[in-house]
Amino acid sequence: MPYEIVATDRRAAVAYGGGMEEFDPGTRHVLPAPPKAGMPAPPKDEAAWGYATRPMRIPARHDSMPGDRFGKDGGTYLVMYDEVRADELSSERVAALGIATDAQLRVHVVVLPHAAEHIAEATDRMLLRAGLVGLVLIAAVAYFAVRIALRPLEAIRVLTASVTASDPRERVTVPATGHEITALATTINTTLQRLDNAAAQQRRFVADAAHELRSPLTTLLASLEVALAYPERTDWPATATTAARQTHRLHALAEDLLLLARLDTRAPTADPEAVDLTALASRLAERYPLTERGPLTLTCDSTAPARAHGNPDAYERLLRNLLDNAARHAAHRIQITIRNQDTWVVLTVHDDGPGVPTEDAERIFERFVRLDDARSRDHGGTGLGLAIARDLAHRHRGTLTLKPRTLGACFELRLPQAPTPAGE
Fold this sequence. Notes:
The protein is of the alpha+beta class. Helices cover 43% and strands 18% of the residues. A five-stranded antiparallel β-sheet has the order 2-1-5-4-3. Helix 4 (180-229) runs antiparallel to helix 5 (236-265), helix 6 (277-287) crosses helix 7 and helix 7 (312-329) runs antiparallel to helix 9. The protein is rod-shaped and about 150 Å long. 21% of the residues are buried. It catalyses: ATP + protein L-histidine = ADP + protein N-phospho-L-histidine.
C-alpha cells in the first residue's frame, strides 16, 4: 500500500514506498506536510492520537507506464494520516531521519480502490473459512452433546418397548441429574405402576368372576344331573325351585358384572338433571320388599328436599344396593336419614346388625369381598353391591364411606348439593 512520511520545513519526503517512488518523493514530497506544532508534546503515559482520513489529489504523471499503481492523470484517493512530533522521538532517531527537533511528522497511507477490494476479499475469505470451521465445530459439539443428553431417553425407549399390557412390570432407571428427563422417567414409572395395578386388578376380577359364576353353575348342574339320573325318585318342584334360585343368582351376577364393565369404561360426565334424593329414598322405603327379609322395619327420616345432580336410575341403583346390604345383615331395623349440610347432601343407611370390624371398613368396598361369605351366598349376594354403589357415588363426584358405630353398620353417602329451583 503506498505510503509517504513528510515533515515540516523539509522539501523531500522522510520515507516513502508502496508505489510512491513513481513520483520521486526524494526530490519533492507528493502529499502535503503538516504545520509546526503550537502546543507542547503530550506526556509519554497518555494514549497516542488517532489517525484521520480525507480525500487527497495525487498529481498527474506524463511518463506513467502500464502497471503503475497511479493512473496517468493522477486522481483523488482516500488518504489516512497521523501526525507525530519530533520531540516524542529519541535524539538518535531524529538525527537518523534528518529532521529538526521541533519538526512535525505526518505519515500518509494512500488507500487504493483495488487494494481496498483486495483487503475486503481477503477478509471475506478469511471470515468465510473461519465461519465454516466454526460451523463444523459447533455442529460436531452439538451432535455429541445431544447424543449424550439423549442417551437416557434411548434407555427409556428400550425398556418401555418391552412392556406389554399383560405384564407391565418393567421400570425405567431414573437419572440423578434432576432435569426434565428425570421427570419424564418418574412419570413413565408412575404410569407403568398404574398399568400394573390395573392389570393385577383385572386378573383378580376375572378370577373372582369365574369363581362366582362356577358356584351357581355347579349347584344347578348337579341338581339337574341327579334329577335326570333318577327321574322317578326326584322331587321335581324342589329341583325346579333350586334351578330357578341359581339361575336368578347367575342373572343378578351377570347384570352386576355388565354394570361394572360399563362403569370402568365410561368416563364420568356432568348430568344437568337434579334428583330429589328425599323423594327417591321415601319411595324406595315404601316399596322395598321386607317380607322376604324377615321381621324388619324400614324408616326414612328427612326434613326437607335434598337435590343432587345425576341420573335417577343410577341413584336408585345405589340406594337399592345399600338397602340390600343392610337387609342382609340387620336384626330388626333399617333407618335412612337425609340431611342438607352446607353444600352437600348427606344420606345415611344404618342397620342394627353385627356391624363391620374397623380393619375391614375399606375392604368391604372391594369387588367380590364378603365378610360373612356363607350367609351372603344364602341371601343371594354377589359381593358386588357395595363396589357398584361406591363407583356410582364417585361418578357423581361424591363419596361413600362406612362410619364407625357402636351398633350395626352405617354407610354415609355425600353428594354435591344442587341449587334449589327458583320459587321454592
